[in-house]
Amino acid sequence: MTTKVASRAAPRALVSWSGGKDSALALHRVLHDGSVRVEGLLTTVTDEYDRISMHGVRRALLDAQAAALGLPLTTVRIPPACTNDDYEARTGDSLATYAADRGEAVVFGDLFLADVRAYRERLLQPHALAGLFPLWGEDTTALARRFVALGFRATLVCVDPAQLDPRFAGRAYDDALLDELPPGVDPCGERGEFHTFVHDGPVFRHPVPVRPGEVVERGGFVFADLLPG
């Protein structure tokens, strides 16, 4: 990947990192255009399970991702069934720490949900951190195809069976899968239809080895476990 070196005037930023394709595309975009100085990743992890919250990906794979990206990782630890107040307090602590270290912005991979964007900006406001949304408003079909064409490799690790057939859990996120998605399912899963784990691509120094594990239903979602390869 050809990257533009960020100028010293570019804001210092963390990338809000879910481990999935949208945050990977957002990272790719800002590294490519040099619009920010990326200083690390910020990820929410559920304590009892030691997994990326909502995505259900093991902490060991998150750590392997960060190492393959060559970026420091900051985790916000939350309990299972975390209340919104608790989530905001713990996230706020991490944001305050970064702001106190002269951080200036947080990059998000959100695409078109205005309420989600407004919520993120509200959390950042007390800390005088800017919210940056480099993919905002782009066509999600084009983004999905671009992700594949750029050479990213990802796996569907969580599926909402109310929106998408559970058989998609554990599938590779590729052109074949995009061709099979039913009408009404956003190809980037922006409405929570599915979540992914990215294990290779142009922002990685090397692939993250993974192998398939068990597929389970928990809390109304279907999770395809990934094991370190």
Rough outline:
globular
Please summarize the sheet with the most strands: 6 strands, mixed
Structural class: alpha/beta
Order of helices and strands: EHEEHEHEHEHEHEEE
Q: Work out the strand percent.
A: 25-35%
Q: How many E strands?
A: 10
Give start-end ranges of low-pLDDT stretches. Answer: none
The number of helical segments is 6
Rg from alpha-carbon coordinates: 17 Å
Helical coverage, percent range? 25-40%
Q: Roughly what is the average pLDDT, rounded to an integer?
A: 95
Give the CA-CA distance, first to last residue. 25 Å
Layout of strands and helices, then pairs:
Elements: E1 12-16, H1 21-33, E2 37-46, E3 51-52, H2 59-69, E4 73-78, H3 84-100, E5 105-107, H4 114-124, E6 130-132, H5 140-149, E7 153-159, H6 175-180, E8 194-200, E9 210-218, E10 221-228
Parallel strand pairs: 1-2, 1-5, 2-4, 5-6
Antiparallel strand pairs: 2-3, 7-8, 7-10, 9-10
